[in-house]
Amino acid sequence: MDADERELSPDEAFSLLGNDTRIGIIQTLWEADEPLSFSELHDRVGISDSGQFNYHLNKLVGLFVRQKNGKYELPFAGFRVIGAILSGTYTQRAESTTYELDLPCIGCETRLEAEYDEEMVTVRCPSCDVERSTFGFPPGAFEERDVDELPRTFERWLRNIFSMMTDGICLNCSGRTVGSLVTESEYFEQEAEIGVEFVCDRCNDHAFGSIGSYILQHPAIVAFHYEHGIDLGEESAWELEWLIENEAEIIAEKPLLVELTVELAGDELTVRVDDGLSIEVE
Ligand SMILES: [Zn+2]
Ligand SMILES: [Zn+2]
């Protein structure tokens, strides 16, 4: 069979990567940043037995390594392997740590804390004892970042993941996500009456968010903030009072209809979200 037409089961693909020489080949191609010939690659990987080297290289070709015009390079799947190694989701086990963030609680001005445990971040106010957000975060993302960068990094990570899920794409498996209004969820924030939940119909990954975080990227909301001097592309969602206060109300039960008032400097926008997750702004 042609090496370019190989198809593997998930366990075959994972076991293929469970070998130092093969990971070494992938890392060498990534570090080279240009296609390498067989002998260049062989020299750089540093395996003296060329039969062994050839054997391992051939296992990767057509899957995690591409052979083109007599040279070797990384295809998308190879970069994904590098991405998984760098983000450290599978290779590092960060110890439980608490970071004090340079970000005040909107309720009491105390600095928010982020607890990191088992690859999950929980942002909370230690005084109000209110949890702001909980989300998965790869341990490799802490590398080369100061604690000052964490509030923005966490917030952008969370916002972008949620945005992918609301756009119908699962970040975990790239499958299709389906959203709905929910009044009960194990992911519910404290005291929330209603929220939105997105579930991947392939891997079953979940994302739960408040109504406020769901409407945050609607053009009318972005423009309303912009008119009040707030660039939502820059502003942290954890500093938006109307969003943190989370006062979405159910105004009709069957079908469900939710209303939320967005208030900025005395001006108000009324936003409704129906059970099909359509957003209407008044
Ligand atoms: Zn507080
Ligand atoms: Zn998925």
Work out the helix count.
9
Radius of gyration: 24 Å
Spell the H/E element sequence: HHEHHEEHEEEEHEEEHHHEEEE
CATH architecture of the domain at 3-87: Orthogonal Bundle
Going across the biggest sheet, name each strand in turn: 4-5-6-7
Largest sheet: number of strands, sense, barrel closure: 4 strands, antiparallel
Strands, total number: 14
| Ligands and ions found | zinc ion
Architecture overview:
The structure is a single chain. By secondary structure, the protein is of the alpha+beta class. Helices cover 31% and strands 27% of the residues. The protein has nine helices and 14 strands. It has helices at 10-17, 20-32, 38-45, 50-60, 76-87, 150-166, 211-215, 219-227, 241-245, and strands at residues 36-37, 66-68, 71-73, 97-104, 111-117, 120-125, 130-136, 177-182, 195-200, 206-210, 249-252, 257-264, 267-274, 279-281. Strands 4-5-6-7 form a four-stranded antiparallel β-sheet, covered by helices on one side. Strands 11-12-13-14 form a four-stranded antiparallel β-sheet. Strands 1-3-2 form a three-stranded antiparallel β-sheet. Strand 6 and strand 7 (130-136) form a beta hairpin. The structure holds zinc ion (ZN) (2 copies).
List strands and helices in order, with pairings:
Layout: H1 10-17, H2 20-32, E1 36-37, H3 38-45, H4 50-60, E2 66-68, E3 71-73, H5 76-87, E4 97-104, E5 111-117, E6 120-125, E7 130-136, H6 150-166, E8 177-182, E9 195-200, E10 206-210, H7 211-215, H8 219-227, H9 241-245, E11 249-252, E12 257-264, E13 267-274, E14 279-281
Antiparallel strand pairs: 1-3, 2-3, 4-5, 5-6, 6-7, 8-9, 9-10, 11-12, 12-13, 13-14
Bound molecules: zinc ion (2 copies).
The site of one zinc ion has 7 residues, from loops.
